[in-house]
Each structure stands twice: as C-alpha cells, then as structure tokens.
Amino acid sequence: MIKTRFAPSPTGFLHVGGLRTALYAYLFAKKQGGVFALRIEDTDKERFVEGGIENIVRSLAWAGLRPDEGVDLDKMGKITQKGDCGPYIQSTRLDIYKKHVDELIKKGHGYYCFCSKERLDELRKMQELNKMPTGYDRHCCNLSKEEIEKRLKANEPHVVRMKIPKEGITKLNDLIKGEVEFKNELIDDQVILKADGYPTYHLAVVVDDHLMKITHVIRGEEWLSSTPKHIQLYKMFGWKAPEFAHLPLLLNPDKSKLSKRQGDVAVENYKAKGYLPEAMINFVAFLGWNPGTDKELFTLDELVKEFNLSRVNKSGAVFNLQKLDWYNEQYIRQMNLSELVERCVPFLIEARLIKDYRKITDEYKKWLEGVVALERGRVANLSQISEALKFVFIDKLNYDAGILVWKKSTKKETEKNLKLLSEILLSTKIVQIWTKENLEAKIGEWIKEEELSAGSVLWPMRVALSGQENSPGPFEIAEVLGREKTVERLTEAFKKL
Asked: Is 260 a catalytic residue?
C-alpha cells in the first residue's frame, strides 16, 4: 500500500510551499489508491504558534486536501486524530523517541554529548577561521562509561548525537533529482535528542515515518542535505528506508527564494483576498510540474489522474502572481452564478454592503446574481468584488460632473440627453419590461430615430449610473438598479451638470 504524508510544523500559517508539498503527496498517493496522512511536527517549542495546527488543517481542508489518516478537526473545530498509527502529533510521542534513542546508544550508534554552547560556538569559529568544514569534533564520543554515568547522575545538561560512520559514501536515488551521493566524512554527528528531552527533526521524522508505514517521502529540496543522516538512521535501526522525492524550490520573480520578507506566502492570505481554492490548487500544481500537454485548467480529480513525479522539474519554480490571477479569473468566469454569489457573500458582508446572508430571501439572492454578474469578468479575486460593486449598494454617488461629458460631446448636449433619457425610462409605455435586453433595444431604437450619437447618450448614462469612467455597460447596471433608482441617478447627474 502506497502511503505518503505531509508533516508540517505549527510555526505559523500554512506556507504556499507547504501547500504544494501536501498537494503532490496527496496526488501521488491518490493516483495509486494509497493513503495520505497528516502528521504535526511540533517538537520545536520555541517556534510553536498557538492556533497553528488548526490553521494548517483548515487551510488544507479549504484546498480540498483532507487526510485519510492523522490530524484533523471535528465539527466543533477541535483537534482530533484518526488512524491506527498514532498519535500523530510529535509532542505526544516523547516516550517513543526516548526508547529509540536508548536503542541507538546501546548499539553504539549514539552517544551523550555534554559540550556547552560556548564550546560549540568557539569550535565553529575556529573551523570557519581555518576554512574547515563545520561540524562537531566528537569531543564527547569516547567518554568512559563511568564518566558518562557520573555526569548524568549530576544532572549535567547534555544532548544525544548519532555516530555517523566517517568512511565511504551514502547514496540516494531521488525520484526527482536522480542519484545523489554524499561523503560520510562530511556528514555531521547530528543531535538527535535535545537537552529538554525533545527529539530533533532528524530522529523524529525517521522514527515516525517508519512506524507510520510511510512508503514515499515527498518534501522540499531544502531537506535534501539532511537525507543522508536519515538514511544512516534507517541503517542503524535496521529498517528499510522509504523512497524520497525532493521538490524544487519556489522562487520570487527575481529568482530569490520565496520568503515572508518579499510578500504574501501564507495560504490564509490568499484565501482572505478571495482566491478560489480550485484556482489555488491548479496554480500550485503547475509550480514545478506540467502534464506534458497544453491543457492548463484541471480539477483536483483530473490532477490525480494526470500527476506523475517523473514530470516534476529539477530546477526552481517561479511564483508568478499574475498567473495566479489568470487562473482565478478563469474559475470566476466559469463558475455557476449562484455558487459564485455564495462565495462572494462573505466579502460583501465584510464590506458592509449586505447584512447577514441567512436572512436574505430567494428573491434577493436572485437579484444578487445579477449584481455579481456585472463584475465577474472584470475582477481577479473576490475581495475586489466588494470595491467594484460598491456603486450598486450606496445611496448617493460622489463623482466629478466633468466625467459625464463624452469626449466628442458637449455639456449642453449631455444635459439634454440625460433629461430625455430620464423621461423615456420613466415611461412604462415606452419601456415596459425592465431587462437589459429590452432596455438596449428600446434605447437603441430611440437613438436611431433621433439621429443621436450613441456615445453622447450611453457614456453619460453609464457614468451617471456607476459614478465611474470605467464600469460595466449601462443596460446591465440599469437592470440591477431597477427603474426607480436608474431614473433617480440620471436626474442627479443632470443636476450635477
């Protein structure tokens, strides 16, 4: 059974790079009928952020990546766990790690280290000064059993290090990078148990992946240099190592590593801005992978069918915000209008343009569909909807009267056309059915009969109804405003001139 995992640290919001790692692990497992697990690696207590676990789970659920096994949230939003390989939160597995550390010490693959921080800092400075590889010098490796027991009995602060064999090489056949070799003499005797009794990432990840029966480890390229330490640990325990696949870095447009210092990197931020999960998943999937065809729009199920690690690039992938906008625009335009309204409502409520959606009638929902349709082809994300549609909801528009005059017209002609237009639209005999199609037909006939310039009528009409130089068409706006409000705004525009 193929089994992958996503194992983030709750040190803040879920990073888009983390979302990509989770997505690829999910796609790889699902394509082969396998299991996707979520484990939380929270052994770094100094960087732990309250609410980080909940945010990670919610962000994954928003993107459609629900774990088959591991950490989840119940209906009340409380942390829960499912599966028979738990617990899935590392801070609750300390006894398990201690047992395995003791095993390594007993086998001679691990040793106690009592070196102070000051000594280690001095050692590193000396190595750097002499242009030597930095790493621990095994000062405590050959302490006698009596000395170790004496120091432990005196409660001397200490860590446990793994004892790396210093001869030969460690090989890795990475599913993305290919064959990679590491000289053992350059691999540091990594700390595996810290002074506070917590394991380091390196020990915990190996123990957990083995006990949780993970067959494929898919993670970021930044962990490639740590992999020989992990392979050595598998050998020390006598376990079979999983397959490894290290994903290329995510880069800024300037080819620097994508980081918090250079813009939004949290999935939560994109969700708050109104990016659709379908668009985000589609965009993230293409950050380092391509299907080998010209097709760009994929559902999650389609990605499961098409995904293959062999088509993941070795080089870094540029995070192009314009491309994400393009994906989002496509999904906004293709989405069923009633569903799009449901997605827009939280943003309209936040902007105080509408009230609690639970009290909205079906008739009002239908009207909202027409309102949202005005801007669905003109926005890149849903947070822009509120600002773009504000003119529909406010009582009085505030704009410069000068923009009412079309470039080929005059103020006098504009006044005349606005007055006539108000009279025509007010007459239920001339415009009986208030739809954009009927409005366009009736006003078009009138313009033709009076031999008027379309621009001299429709430009001021559109500006009067929207208060903007750039807006949807006048007939679309008039339909959602209704007869009374349309005439009211045309009259107000006349007064402005």
From this structure: yes
